[in-house]
Amino acid sequence: MNYRHVYHAGNFADVLKHAVLALVIEHLKSKGTPFRVIDTHAGVGSYDLSSTEAQKTGEWLDGIGRLTGATLPPGIADILRPYLMAVSRENIGSGGAILRYPGSPQIARSLLRPVDILAVNELHPDDCVRLTRLFAGDPQTKVLKLNGWDAIKALLPPKERRGVTLIDPPFEELGEFDRLVQGLRDAHKRFATGTVIAWYPIKDERAVAAFHAGLQRLEMSKLMSVVLMVRNPSHLGGLPGTGLVISNPPFTLESKLQVLLPYLKETLQQGSGARSHIEWLKREAAPIQDT
Ligand code: SAM
Hints:
By secondary structure, the chain is α/β, with parallel strands linked by helices. The protein contains 10 helices and 10 strands. The strands form 2 sheets. The chain has an 8-stranded mixed sheet, sandwiched between helices. A two-stranded antiparallel ribbon has the order 2-3. Helix 6 (125-134) links the parallel strand 4 (117-121) and strand 5. It is globular and about 40 Å long. It starts with 11 loop residues before the first helix and ends in an 8-residue tail after the last strand. S-adenosylmethionine binds at residues 1, 3, 5, 14, 17, 39, 41-43, 103-104, 121-124, 127, 147-148, 168, 170.
């Protein structure tokens, strides 16, 4: 387990992932009944952007740094409000500067109502200690140290029978795409009506096509793929694109992403080949879901 998210915190992939997470949570809040957010690969929850690690890559400058430096058109500002509010809360007292970036646990936590629950899981021993410290004394947040793939099975279905699960593995080992297909299968088997957001990197478009084909064989009724490429893949490596697959997306999400994605593509692009799209991998008529 060598992956450290601090090198990447707040980059373009985090922007898309966290903006979508925030939109899904806001949709869950449109009903009064409690829900649970489950984060299977949580990281440390909050990142110091002045740290040596974050400064070394400076990835956040081309992610959240570009958004906070831009004047957002009103429609975009509305869509990004919950996400940017979570980022601002992490930077209270900074005079508008972005000094820290909230990871998915803090984004989720800052958007919960008093009745909602957050379950965050992180396997790395040091990171789990930091996560535990971050949420010490918080009765709404449970911190676990399981293998994330086991956490899916252990934590679903949530007691509330409403909620969203974020599966955000580091992709540092071979076979992660296959594990992600299996993870989505496990999540669906245990909590068919819940929303799952799963993240993956786009470096090799053939690997992504095979991943999507695997997902299309799953017995799910609603599975949406969201892609944001900030440049063409190149031999220089790095991360040219980011993808999310979302099972049971809230009905409001697609139209918001249709507006947001072209804006993110324009604002976050890093070279030629920037593009974005939404594709339904599965879209069968199914009973109305209570998410
Ligand atoms: N979700 C976080 C966010 O958006 O702020 C970022 C998570 S980072 C991409 C992936 C995390 O998974 C790392 O903190 C890593 O230590 C952890 N991890 C790696 N393998 C794991 C496993 N098998 N189970 C649980 N966590 C794991």
